[in-house]
Amino acid sequence: xxxxxxxxxxxxxxxxxxxxxxxxxxxxxxxxxxxxxxxxxxxxxxxxxxxxxxxxxxxxxxxxxxxxxxxxxxxxxxxxxxxxxxxxxxxxxxxxxxxxxxxxxxxxxxxxxxxxxxxxxxxxxxxxxxxxxxxxxxxxxxxxxxxxxxxxxxxxxxxxxxxxxxxxxxxxxxxxxxxxxxxxxxxxxxxxxxxxxxxxxxxxxxxxxxxxxxxxxxxxxxxxxxxxxxxxxxxxxxxxxxxxxxxxxxxxxxxxxxxxxxxxxxxxxxxxxxxxxxxxxxxxxxxxxxxxxxxxxxxxxxxxxxxxxxxxxxxxxxxxxxxxxxxxxxxxxxxxxxxxxxxxxxxxxxxxxxxxxxxxxxxxxxxxxxxxxxxxxxxxxxxxxxxxxxxxxxxxxxxxxxxxxxxxxxxxxxxxxxxxxxxxxxxxxx
Length: 430
Known about the structure:
Blueprint: E1 14-16, E2 19-21, H1 25-39, H2 58-82, H3 91-100, E3 110-119, E4 124-126, E5 131-134, E6 139-142, E7 146-148, E8 153-163, E9 173-175, E10 182-186, H4 200-210, H5 219-228, E11 240-246, E12 252-254, E13 257-259, E14 263-269, H6 274-287, E15 293-295, E16 298-303, E17 320-327, E18 329-332, E19 334-340, H7 349-361, E20 375-377, H8 382-386, E21 393-400, E22 408-410, E23 415-418, E24 424-429
Parallel strand pairs: 14-15, 14-17, 18-23, 19-24
Antiparallel strand pairs: 1-2, 3-8, 3-10, 4-7, 5-6, 5-9, 6-8, 11-14, 12-13, 16-17, 19-21, 20-22
Helix pairs in contact: 1-2, 5-6
Domain Baseplate protein J-like barrel: 121-191
InterPro entries: Barrel_Baseplate_J-like (IPR006949)
């Protein structure tokens, strides 16, 4: 059987240094029509005398369906071509790129809060799973067994029973189940807010930060390793981290922090527990340059647990080291949003605006989340409010950290910004 050279008038996909270029849909339709005319000796009619396309004819239906199939095929191909670019990859393809850097997408996490439990006697056990409840009705369970000591108190970590960004403001939890000898519980500090499954934008941002994770002796490698830490349940230990250094032979001031000569400064946003302290300290020890000074108000002793190729400890008596770092100070952020009233705005407009700003702040809508040491611009949240619809007419958005409202606020290198919806004020004028 001889080879038959089959040609088509449908334009092809173009490949160039700039990537893939798809033919326009009207050009594809013209090409399919010409192929039909060639097959049927130009006996088919596709247009009337006025030049209008005869879609209702059998041949009109066929060529438009075939053109749509070709266009969909082209778009699908272009989509997967772009998936090899980390800036555009998402879903399963982005997960594959992440594994090249030995990182996995962060699953949804649960809000955790430290409660100060008081009792009328010593040795009162608060069993694992014991529930407490916040003012919004969310239930939290004790992470493990806790025993009220001789001083009559114990700090217990409670985990929300629902994943996601659930706020737990300071002084908001109370007892939900009575235990003999346990009198009260309170949380002097706000809980560490959980998060939904890591979004495409958040995952890509972390991938960029983790590139230095396999290196040592640099501030980037320390931060990358800290951000990769997970606890026994696979949840991230550090919500954020900031690492800098002073290479000079004299002390310097960086914002509101004084750095010792020849030292590194490590600040983390994380729950303070023994397990977390050990994980954070060992991460710093693995990645920091030897012999440098450290800054901070938390010092943790760790042991060298390095093992040889057979899995045996290198030392019969492991050396110990003192690692110093600092927990980030939680700084409440406030918003003052002024809107122009619109006739078609929904009844729950205020709640929708608060949700939009809050979701942008915590990065749930794909925005870059404000971090330790960052500068936060009020204009960063304009897009999220405008995306609510044409009714969302913004007069101004201002931001503050407890003082006067302005167009921006700055975080120190030891400060982590936080936001609750109660701190978002929305006013409608007109």
